[in-house]
Amino acid sequence: MTSVTSAAESGSKSILASKKPNRYLRGEERTAWWFVLPSFALLLIFVFYPMLQAFVISFQNYNLVGSTRSFIGLDNYKNLLTDRDFLASLRHSFHFAIIVIPIQTSISLCLALLVQKKFALTGLFRTLYFIPVVISTAVAATVFKLIYNKEFGILNNVLKTFHLPTTNFLSNPETAMYGVIMLGIWKGVGFFMIIFLAGLNNIPQDLYEAARVDGATKIQQFFRITLPLLNRTTAFVVIMTTIDAIKLSGLVFVLTGGGPNGATETAVYYIYKMAFQQMQMGYATAAAFILFVIVLVISLVQMRLFRNAEY
Amino acid sequence: MNRFASIVKYTVMTVLAVISIIPILWMISGSLRPYEELFKYSSSLNYHLFVPVQPTLANFKEVIFNEGNPFIRYIANTLFVAGIVTLLVLLVNSMSAFAFAKLRFRGKAVVFALFMSAMIIPGEVTLVPNYLLMNYFGWLNSYKALVIPSMLSVFGIFLLRQFFAEIPDEILEAAKIDGASMLRTFSSIVLPATVPPMITLALMTFLGNWDSYLWPLIVINDDKKQMIQVAIAAFSSVEGTDWSKILAASTISTVPILILFLFLQRYYIQGITMSGVKG
């Protein structure tokens, strides 16, 4: 208030004067900094400093065992781009993404539509669909290991009942990734169902009423109103799924350990293996940086999409 | 026609619900069976696939009182770490969120932008340098490595800031006029007014830490100090054949979390909705 009156007093000088805060504001500023300081320090120490450090290490030959460090320029990156294991691990991550995105997105949208309208038991069904999200990754992967088991897993029991061929999904390099994918979808749909529910609730109900008056069928309503207005949510879900797929590691660690024959080794698993089993910190960090660039590009696309979104 | 449609709908919903929870029910029922029984009824689909014929608690006893694999200890470790992290996350991030929502200070926009930009950096990218940092601090194999880097939650700041911003300025002004310090205003006006989002953040943090696997695997070497998820994964690969015990260990680690979730699911789901809305 004082600064406003002083600003009114006279020309350019008052701008300087109004920049200098009064005593209360100065007190507020000091308090504000104390409030922000703890998290800001954590941000600098555990996010930005490591990020800078990662950038530097990625140009080094850094072996933790011999604690040798030397600058080798772009060699790590060059080697990675021709490293068949690394490229395969990226391919596995994208394989996961490409299969999971359409299936998981459509199932979670279906679930959201099924439980959107309130009726008896909606709450119960929502909770049941959501429970896999809460089950910890290690437990889910452990239980699925048993479910996939050829002799006594329930999955093969079901297959047998329908006279379909049985197999141990995880010991065959051809099918192991699908074992990971099924678990990923089982665990993920509930989460995205909730996101879709939030999106569905944002669609104004009068649009449907108007459509009903005009004689539109349920199917027409879905394709002409629901889907277009869910664009933003769908884009968010697809991008989140892609980023999660690229960062996929936990399920693979416990379910397959990257096997059989490296068939389910994902990018993060590869980074872990390089850094903490072979102690090649520089090489692993360069791989992590390539991963970061991929995630960054996807995030930028995401921001673009959302800026162009209508509402 | 309408009736037919709703029958189809309920059938589909039930089938999907069964698929969602069968693995968990199977885990729990399997943990209550003697080892010989676990596979006896698995050759065909009948109700004994899910209902134990001779229910027993022996698996739990063996898992809990096993000297080599002290599961109660792992759970206590994890409860301890996740609990401390949750408290600290609430404290540290609500303070910043308050400053960003309600206080004026120079550089606010820039600092806030820095926080938000950190959301793009995946933890996987800073895994190696953070490990080296822990090594440098001498925190490897200690809970400091699990607790201190986890104290920051950029999402938490974002979430709380939105709720804090809704508190009317007049109330804060009134407190100021009454001579309350900023800390006082924060602790006795702002925090009590925003209990629901605090529960949301607490639950998300707690469950996230309960579930964490890769980081504890890397920084904790001492078996006795290990977290429950790593312990379960290790247990299931060592005891590869003793499935009833593995199922019992998994059940022990799941049931408390499931109960917590069932009581507080509203808040947890609210947090997820928020993360979708933010875009």
Task: Walk me through what this model shows.
The complex is a heterodimer of chains A (311) and B (279). Chain A contains 15 helices and 2 strands. Chain A is an all-alpha fold and 311 residues long. Chain A has helices at 2-9, 11-19, 23-57, 75-81, 84-116, 122-134, 137-147, 154-161, 176-201, 205-213, 218-229, 231-246, 250-255, 267-277, 281-308, and strands at residues 60-63, 68-71. With 279 residues, chain B is mostly helical. Chain B has 2 domains: 1-55, no CATH class; 65-276, MetI-like fold (Orthogonal Bundle), CATH 1.10.3720. Helix content of chain B is 73%, strand content 0%. The longest helix of chain B has 36 residues, at 243-278. Chains A and B meet through helix 3, helix 5, helix 6, helix 7 and helix 8 of A and helix 1, helix 4, helix 5, helix 6 and helix 10 of B.
List the topology elements.
The complex is a heterodimer of chains A (311) and B (279).
Chain A: H1 2-9, H2 11-19, H3 23-57, E1 60-63, E2 68-71, H4 75-81, H5 84-116, H6 122-134, H7 137-147, H8 154-161, H9 176-201, H10 205-213, H11 218-229, H12 231-246, H13 250-255, H14 267-277, H15 281-308
Helix pairs in contact in A: 1-2, 5-9, 5-12, 5-14, 6-9, 9-12, 12-15, 14-15
Chain B: H1 2-31, H2 35-40, H3 58-64, H4 71-102, H5 108-117, H6 127-137, H7 143-147, H8 154-165, H9 169-177, H10 182-193, H11 195-211, H12 214-219, H13 228-238, H14 243-278
Helix pairs in contact in B: 1-14, 3-14, 4-8, 4-11, 9-10, 11-14, 13-14
GO cellular component, one term (chain B): plasma membrane
Keywords (chain B): Cell membrane, Membrane, Transmembrane, Transmembrane helix, Transport
Main location (chain B): membrane
Q: What CATH architecture of the largest domain in chain B do you see? A: Orthogonal Bundle
Strand content of chain B: under 5%
Q: Give the terminus-to-terminus CA distance of chain B.
A: 40 Å
The helix/strand order of chain A is HHHEEHHHHHHHHHHHH
**Text of the CATH class of the largest domain in chain B:** Mainly Alpha
Global shape of chain B: globular
| SSE arrangement of chain B, N to C | HHHHHHHHHHHHHH
Our Rg estimate of chain A from Cα atoms comes to: 27 Å
Specify the helix fraction band of chain A.
over 70%
Q: Which chains make the largest contact?
A: A-B, 91 and 92 residues
According to CATH, the homologous superfamily of the largest domain in chain B is MetI-like
Helical proportion of chain B, percent range = over 70%
**Total helical elements of chain B:** 14
The tally of strands of chain B reads 0
How would a textbook summarize the main sheet of chain B? none
